[in-house]
Design a protein that fits this description.
It contains 3 helices and 20 strands. By secondary structure, it is of the alpha+beta class. It has a domain of 158 residues. Strands 3, 4, 8, 11, 12, 15, 17 and 19 form an 8-stranded antiparallel beta sheet that branches. The longest helix is centred in the C-terminal third of the chain and has 21 residues. It is elongated.
Length: 247
């Protein structure tokens, strides 16, 4: 064999033939990099689609059966200074899904309680039934709160309420009547009653919870998170710059 002169690197052209078709990888790479803006735009639009608002649910907590022992909305102390614990229902809640919501307010009043531990009031153990009415789906369910009671002073309270169950819905799960469909009502497991002189509004404690729904809004196909989409875009752009330097 005769001697061959080496070709300079800049003159080397690598082609691959598949089925007799010549593939120029430099050309293919340039075509790919032109798609980067389109891909990034599509990912951004898909991300925005997942943020579409969900369904709206109407509910209330003022149905008959709500109250201490399932009857009264006010509980009096058992000993000490005169005091009352009153439940203020949420008469008409209207919220999107998902959302944090309130199931009403407990108001603790003790005019004769002193800020220190000298003059206070005592509440015996009690149970409280909280009826949730899902107006949208014509369904009801019950949360039951149990408390061991405790001492109350102007600036302190020992009263806690522990709730069961912690979830109503979906469907007939823990439903008393009707069907919650895809709606789920959740309640915070413990409500700590603030002291008569404490809180944004003195003596008032919100019964907190949340509302979720599994299918009351369109299900969007799973897409990469924005951070992942951004990383893919950066990698594609990097490939584009690499291809330009190779030319």
């Amino acid at each position: 064999m005769g001697n061959r002169l080496p070709c300079p690197p800049s003159a080397v052209k690598v082609d691959v033939r598949e089925g007799g078709v010549q593939i120029n990888w430099k050309t293919q790479l340039m075509k790919t990099t032109r798609l980067v803006p389109i891909i990034v735009l599509a990912l951004c639009m898909a991300t925005m689609a997942t943020r579409a608002p969900g369904a709206t649910i109407t509910y209330n907590t003022n149905a008959p059966g709500t109250g201490f022992g399932g009857t009264n909305l006010q509980l009096a102390n058992s000993s000490g200074a005169n005091a009352t614990l009153t439940y203020l229902p949420n008469a008409n809640g209207n919220t999107g899904v998902p959302s944090n919501i309130n199931f009403g307010i407990f108001a603790l009043l003790c005019p004769g309680c002193s800020p220190d531990s000298l003059v206070g009031s005592t509440f015996d153990a009690f149970a409280f039934e909280l009826i949730i009415t899902d107006v949208t789906h014509n369904a009801t369910g019950r949360f039951i709160g149990f408390s061991t009671g405790g001492m109350v002073f102007g600036n302190s309270s020992e009263i806690d309420i522990d709730w069961v169950p912690l979830e109503l819905g979906p469907g007939t799960n823990n439903a008393a009547t009707g069907n919650f469909s895809s709606t789920i009502f959740q309640i915070t497991n413990r409500t700590r009653i603030v002291a008569p002189n404490s809180g944004l509004t003195p003596g008032q404690t919100t019964v907190s919870g949340s509302i979720l729904s599994q299918s009351d809004f369109p299900i969007v196909a799973e897409i990469p998170e924005p951070a992942t989409a951004g990383l893919v875009g950066v990698l594609l752009i990097g490939l584009g710059f690499w291809g330009r330097r190779r030319r």
